[in-house]
Write a structure and sequence with these properties.
- This protein has a 3-stranded antiparallel sheet.
- It is globular.
- α1 crosses α2.
- The chain is mainly alpha-helical and about 110 residues long.
- It has one domain: Multidrug-efflux Transporter Regulator, Chain: A, Domain 2, CATH 1.10.1660.
- Helices cover about 50% and strands about 10% of the residues.
- It contains 4 helices and 3 strands; from the N terminus they run αβααββα.
Length: about 110
Amino acid sequence: MTDGEHRSVHLAAQVSALADDVRAGRPVPAGRLFGLPELPDDDCWVDIAGAAALTGVPPKTITGWLTRGGPRSSPFPSPHRHLYRLLWPRMVIISWLARRHAHGLTAGRSR
């Protein structure tokens, strides 16, 4: 197994575990990340695996949207970049999902 394959398998396992916790309403570990600002109202930072777990959209789709500015009807929020990682405040992802649902769109459906 190459290093790239190993990272992909690890990411898929992390997304799956996080998505299971989100769907079941279980608490998801959300530690603070050194070097990033504190977020208000008990918010936390999520990485690409967390964004995928919250939205139900595969990480590769999210990175594709970021590259192309998609989905057209409501572009995915721009991430903060910290040490080569993509990070979002959790509430930014939740707000994006709420806007998509308000317009009758699912997270993964592009228009």
